[in-house]
Amino acid sequence: MATDMAQHFTYRRLIRATLPAIGMMLFKSLYVMTDGLFVSNVCGSTSLAATNFAFPLTMILATIGFMLGTGGSAIVARTRGEGDEELARERFTFFVCATIAISVVLAVAGLVAMRPIMGALGAEGAMLEEACVYGGILLVGLPVDACQLLFQNFYATAGKPGLGFANTVAAGVTNIVLDAVFVALLDMGVAGAAIATVSGEALAAIIPLVYFSRPNSSSLRFTKPRVDLAILREACFNGSSEFVSNISSSLVSMAFNMQLLAWLGEAGVAAYSIILYFGFSFNAIFIGYSIGAAPLMGFNYGAENRAEMRSLFRKSLVVIGCTGIAMFVSTQLLADPLSGLFVRDEPEVLALTVHAFTLYSTAFLVMGFNIYGSSLFTSLSNGVISAIISFFRTIVFEIGCVFLLPALIGPDGIWYAMLVAEVASFSLTAGFAVRLEPRYGYWTGEAR
Fold first, then answer.
1. How far apart are the C-alpha atoms of 293 and 318, rounded to whole Å?
2. Which DSSP state fits 363?
């Protein structure tokens, strides 16, 4: 059954509407984590560090799918709210075609640049070779990766978040099973992990391509696309915050890797890799909620239902605040056993990971508000503010802190960098939310 976006959303309905998107993102993060589990336990910490070195570059290029997914879904949701269902379908089809074409070009460029970039970041020897193998295979699968990122957003806009979750589960199970076969049984190392990941992504892209190509019960399906470069620019502009956020997150990972190699060596990079896997999972909850809630806000913005916008906004703040507290407490209590899943025979790496995890996790208390704030302005078709929040949160605050704080307080400054950056970003996000509220009415229910 498709989600009725015109209904009033109580807490129960809101959670029910966003839970599939949360589950979809969370499960995706968990099957990415599976690569790390198999690689770290079968191949060792050097191979784990190599995958962490290569992964950010592939994510930077795949972000085109997330950008057109978030920016395009906001446009399609708004178009549906305005009552033009056929135009919404035409635009949806056009965004899918554009994503496929652009991602093919980016994949070729990435393959050419892979080795020089890995070397420039400091990878050498066995770590450089394994990073190039892992990253090269992921880049071959870039078009399907970009498509599955695109559809993660459009499932919610189509009123079928549950289908999106089921699709992600199927892809994740495929990845996990193939990880066990290629890495553990066939001893294919990082190449096996990469092939397993691309196979899961391919399934996650093919299923929606087939589903939306046929008559279905959702609000969207493929039709003759309306080629509209102006609307493509609007989608890119509107989704630029997520584009900036994802690219910046990858650049942040590269900056962390550089600093960790300088301050703590490969053990530091391996520890960060483990923390990132759990960080992806916690981020996935915030991102999934934002993906699920954004079409609801966008629909009501298009329908000019300010009272429901206010209700959605206030409830979202409560949900995100409670979730952040739960994340922080759980990581403080479970840092040791969670880290032990990845590290068994290297006590030095385990001790470093546990220590770093307890410091890094303080950022979860604030992180969700910044992710939701950026998504909020995207759903309101204000890509400028959304992009500013994302740019300052990552490029300015996170990268700035990861280079500045270690110089001031030593290696622990690397792990505290996220907390300081998120607090600074929260101040910026809250300032924009207060300043722009009179324009949209998401707090008072009245727009002026």
1. 13
2. G
Dihedral angle computed from the Cα positions of residues 172, 173, 177 and 178, in that order, rounded to the nearest 10 degrees: -40
Q: Where are the domains of the chain?
A: 11-440
CA atoms within 13 A on the CB side of 50: 27
Q: Work out the angle at residue 273's Cα, subtended by the Cα atoms of residues 154 and 388, and round it to the nearest 5 degrees.
A: 50
pLDDT by position in tens, the chain (length 448): 456 667 888 899 999 888 888 887 787 777 678 778 888 888 887 888 888 888 888 888 888 888 888 888 888 888 887 888 889 889 999 999 999 999 999 999 999 989 998 888 777 788 889 989 999 999 999 999 999 889 888 887 787 877 877 888 888 889 889 999 999 899 899 999 999 999 999 998 999 999 999 888 877 888 888 888 888 888 888 777 667 767 777 788 888 888 988 888 878 888 888 898 888 888 889 988 998 898 889 888 888 898 899 999 999 999 999 999 999 999 999 999 988 888 777 788 889 999 999 999 999 999 999 999 998 998 888 878 988 898 899 889 999 999 999 999 999 999 999 999 999 999 999 999 999 999 998 988 665 4
Using left for φ > 0, alpha for ψ between -120 and 50, and beta otherwise, residue 292 falls in alpha
Distance CA 28, CA 284 (A): 8
Question: Cβ of 378: how many Cβ atoms within 10 Å?
Answer: 28
Nearest to 89 by CA among 229, 216, 204, 206: 216
**How far is residue 206 from each of residues 27, 73, 145, 151, 210, measured CA to CA in Å?**
18, 19, 11, 10, 6
First-residue to last-residue Cα distance in the chain = 36
DSSP 321-362: HHHHHHHHHHHHHHHHHHHHTT-SS-HHHHHHHHHHHHHHGG
Task: Return the structure tokens found at 73.
Answer: 């879904």
Going by C-alpha positions, the residue among 33, 4, 50, 272 that lies closest to residue 159 is 4
